[in-house]
Specification:
Layout (H helix, E strand, L loop, with lengths): L1 E2 L2 E5 L30 E3 L3 H9 L78 H12 L32 H10 L6 E5 L2 E11 L7 E4 L8 E4 L2 E5 L5 E8 L5 E3 L8 E2 L6 H17 L19 H14 L7 H6 L3 H12 L9 E2 L1 E6 L2 E6 L2 E3 L2 E3 L6 E5 L6 E6 L3 H16 L8 H17 L1 H12 L3 H20 L8 E3 L9 E9 L2 E5 L5 H14 L3 E5 L6 H13 L6 E3 L4 H10 L3 E7 L2 H14 L3 E5 L4 E5 L5 H13 L9 E7 H17 L18 H16 L3 E4 L14 E4 L6 H4 L6 E7 L4 H9 L3 E2 L1 E5 L3 H10 L4 E4 L14 E2 L2 E2 L4 H6 L2 E9 L1
Helix pairs in contact: 4-5, 8-14, 9-11, 9-13, 10-11, 10-13, 11-12, 14-15, 16-17
Length: about 850
Amino acid sequence: MREGGREWVKLPGMSLLPPAALHPKAPQSPNTRAFAKPCEFRRVRSTSSRRQLQASGRGGVARGARPHSRRAPRPPALPAPSPPRHSPPPPPPGTPRPPAPPRLAPLPSAAPAANRLPRPRLRRLAWPATPRLLPRVVQAVRLIAEGKAPRLPQPEEGATYEGIQKKETAKINWDQSAEAIHNWIRGNDKVPGAWTEACGQKLTFFNSTLNTAGLLPEGEDLPIPGAHRPGVVTKVGLILFGNDDRMLLVKNIQLEDGKMIPASHFFTGAESSALELSEEELVMAEAVRSAWKRILPSVLEVEESTDFFKSGAASVDVVRLVEEVKELCDGLELENEDVYMATTFGDFIQLLVRKLRGGDEASECIIDYVEKAVNKLTLQMPHQLFIGGMFVDAEGAKTYETINPTDGNVICQVSLAQVSDVDKAVAAAKDAFENGLWGKISARDRGRLLYRLADLMEQHQEELATIEALDAGAVYTLALKTHVGMSIQTFRYFAGWCDKIQGSTIPINHARPNRNLTLTKKEPIGVCGIVIPWNYPLMMLSWKTAACLAAGNTVVIKPAQVTPLTALKFAELTLKAGIPKGVVNILPGSGSLVGQRLSDHPDVRKIGFTGSTEVGKHIMKSCALSNVKKVSLELGGKSPLIIFADCDLSKAVQMGMSSVFFNKGENCIAAGRLFVEDSIHDQFVQKVVEEVKKMKIGNPLDRDTNHGPQNHQAHLQKLVEYCQHGVEEGATLVCGGHQVPRPGFFFEPTVFTDVEDHMFIAKEESFGPIMIISRFADGDVDTVLSRANATEFGLASGVFTRDLNRALYVSDRLEAGTVFVNTYNKTDVAAPFGGFKQSGFGKDLGEVALNEYLRVKTVTFEY
């Protein structure tokens, strides 16, 4: 057949239907014919081919066609058979033929006709006949859209007739080799998933590998009915056994409720620490939420609990989500597996943030909280050791009780670190320093993480202050302002120093005729041990740790045994801030075990200690004998405060009270002895006693409390004995001196006068709310200076006078690391803090503190 300049062959059993017949409203030609089957054409390029096809009986060429004619005649009318059952009836006679499409004029060409390229010949498509079923399909669609279609219930949601996808056929047969079990699990990833029954539920296993090492890690047994041996849940995953006693490792488990978890977390019933998002991360989260909404159009609102797969997503949607998120978060490494491990929107965002911050799956930490409803808050307090980014039990699961000093009741059990735990923590810190992300990120990124940590501390400041009140007896309002407030300021201050630690170039004599360039570099030391006291649990931790981390070191922290809870909460915040695992490790425990092992450990290169002079000397000796560690010590004090008669007396009384009773007297720079000029002595004492009687002793969480409980029972008893010494030696006890008759460890604010230089209370630090007052003769500046300096301690000192020359003279001659003039307790994160003599050496705070955690390297080039 020839039509439109093309030659066609009609094959047997096929039919021809013009395109106009496909549309019910199209005008029909009287020559239109419908046949039982759609027509298929094959193009015939030559007469010989056409003849061969005719001779073979496979079909014929329409008569009247002229192969080489430029205009082909219209195809002749074909005999019309009876209309088939499923074809539309032929059009009635006389129906006008649809107009032929206009012919396009040939494009002008400058080339001669002989040189023109042949015009491409286009294949004419045959249109299938329109079945009579089409109106019924339209009707069915309308019924479905209107909700009137009959419903045929399925036996279960997601039912399938494909045997390979049926859940019941994917059950694991345990009576086979480990390799066969491994192949079965891998063969069923991800649909329908190889499963078994254990612990009263169906568990589906994914991501299996053969354990060729043959070593069985420590873990907890998981009984599996029918298995050759129980499985073992380890820190690397679930170990399973075949009947040949070989092992395979399963990484992921899907619980019966559909939640996917790392197999290593199967027995952990505790909560996972959720990262708190920055403003930029919140913007990213909303963009990802929009991507979820586009992929899940049936979901009206994507909430934290929205499950990707339960909302109708399939495997192809996983690929789309991964690609869209990678486009949103440039540089993010995301795999399909990550979607299966975090199926809810909230978990998925947490996973993305961890990856963007440089974390990984292992950085997710499971926390077993102790919960307390206190101060109109529900406190969630970690109570285990913090090693390598994980909260873990101590060796042998040893614990001890931490006590609330307000009522003497037990707060909770806290893990008690052993020597082996110290070794694990040091190893984690060393690995983080030498091989981890912490040493690879830029100094600016390190600062960014510390800023984020400070922001998190600020967001949790009420919770931190409440824990300080609960665990250390700190008055809540003071804890909020000082214990926590200054801790936040410290981390922000040192975060700003991270990218400003600089060396220098030094001109030296050249090795002529060559030249030389000498420069210095300041480098982190490595693993540092920090031992902190119990009077400011969080603030002392922050003073040392912020400088240590800003310098690029890793750290193992030993909080005071009696006040571990804020340090452990701090550990949780480091996780939320994205501090890489192993950078911060925290070990509650005794000084004789944990502190001693840190001092002796060959991989610890620096010890920072705040505490008593006696313990400081012992640490210094251990550091020297082990590996000559660098040491900074902030030790005891007996700080003098000299009050001259020309001072502002009201201010001197106010500041004198603060110098002694601040933080219940548990203050390393507390004025251990006040020297008051004779002419104002009695007036000063009278005003002080009046103010002491106004102080309210009570629950540290009450907003009007001025004076809370002492930190722990042993310290309270030492204060009682201290006052007994003073009375026995002849000092005048003006007020206080006794334990308050109420539950808890409360001690009365105390004032002693007539204290002579030789007395015990004149020389020894009380570390409690005890004011020691001595007279000095009017105008005798040099004598009072000599008495003030007649001590082996030199942490702080103070002077009150209106005479500027006298103030400068006294401040020059006081032998102390800090001198306050007409004020007291005024410390700042930018001002170096540290003592002289047996009060230690080295500084906290200020730029100088960074040098305590840095080493200087000299590099010389010759060219």
